Amino acid sequence: MNNLNLKKNILKRAALCRHFEQNVYECVKKKIIKLPVYLSSGQEFIASTLSEIILNNLKIKPLIFAQHRCHSTYLSFGGDITGLIKELLGKKDGCSYGMGGSASIHSPKINMYGHDGHMGTQVAIGIGACFSSKKPTIVFLGDAAAEEDYVVGALGWASTKNLPILFIVEDNNLSILTKKKVRRNWDMHKLAKSLNLNGFNITDSSDEIIKHKSLFFKKPTLLNINTNRLFWHSGAGKDSDKTFDRYDFEIKKMGEIGKEIDLKIKNTIDNLWKKQLEKQ
Predict the structure, then answer these.
(1) pLDDT of amino acid 1
(2) β-bridge pairing 174-175 and 165-171
(3) What is the CA radius of gyration of the chain?
(4) What is the CATH number of the domain that holds 129?
(5) Domain of residue 37, residue span
(6) Cβ distance 89 to 245 under 8 Å?
(7) 149: how many CB neighbours lie within 10 A of its CB?
(8) Number of domains in the chain
(9) Are 45 and 106 in contact (CB under 8 A)?
(10) For 120-160, how does the pLDDT look when each residue is reduced to its tens digit (9 = 90+)?
(11) Cβ pair 40, 72 in contact under 8 A
(12) Are 6 and 55 in contact (CB under 8 A)?
């Protein structure tokens, strides 16, 4: 696949995530969605890049373990869009039967396993699943979840057993509203290296993520990916109008092609939401 096609495919996945989340945002503001939601707006290029590389380039269908802020993970890795809309609307035919909500998205079809609600436990559970099955596994966590003590112990086990596992720290530098510098004086990628994992500290640029694809599932690898959430920890409030938006940046960089992809997918996603909301 040439570089332009790769960029277009990644942007299509990111656009799907962005416009899905924009609809969620509007529904929360209008109180149509009343349950707590954790929007991945601003962070969608992480999941969209990884899924394109892993599914279509490496041809691997991994086990997926995520926590809250995982809408983009589900959508990028092929989750049913209507199923997630119904889940957020509390429908029994949602992707988690209306019981998981925003934080515990579950889909056996894409090997994605719902989260139990305790911060960071997906790391230990994902490592256990990988150890038992020996299947390629990807675990998503936030920069705050990385601070849980059982996360560190579990990473050590993954290293000791040389598991085919990839850890993605979606590092938006915030635990609700508390920045990393207040919470700790160490770096996650350095901790990973100290445990004999591959550890890297990068931005959420597709180019930087793709640069490390040859390591995926060969040896336990951790990418601490610096990114920005656009909205509050939970809900539809804005953190800051000055927050860097990777999605807008990439759209502008792609020029007219980017605008066309954005508009086409926006219309598709808006119509899917409209259809489901008319049934409310």
Answers:
(1) 58
(2) unpaired
(3) 18
(4) 3.40.50.970
(5) 3-278
(6) no
(7) 8
(8) 1
(9) no
(10) 999 999 999 999 999 999 999 999 999 999 999 999 999 99
(11) yes
(12) no
Is residue 253 scored above 70 in pLDDT?
A: yes
Largest CA distance in the chain: 54
Distance CA 44, CA 70 (A): 9
Provide mean pLDDT across the span 72-94. Answer: 97
For residue 280, name the pLDDT band (cuts at 50, 70, 90): confident
User: pLDDT of 169-197, one tens digit each?
Assistant: 999 999 999 999 999 999 999 999 999 99
Length in residues, the chain: 280
Looking at residue 191, its amino acid is L
pLDDT of the residue at 260: 97
Whether the CB-CB separation of 222 and 169 falls below 8 Å is answered with yes
Amino acid found at 212: H
Angle CA(163)–CA(166)–CA(167) in degrees, nearest 5?
115
DSSP secondary structure string, the chain?
A: --HHHHHHHHHHHHHHHHHHHHHHHHHHHTTS--S-----TT-HHHHHHHHIIIIIIS----EEE--SS-HHHHHHTT--HHHHHHHHTT-TTSTTTTSSTTT---BGGGTEE---SSTTHHHHHHHHHHHHH---EEEEEETTGGGSHHHHHHHHHHHHTT-SEEEEEEE-SEETTEEHHHH-SS-HHHHHHHTTSEEEEEES-HHHHHTTGGGTTTS-EEEEEE---SB-SSSS-BS-TT---HHHHHHHHHHHHHHHHHHHHHHHHHHHHHHHHHT-
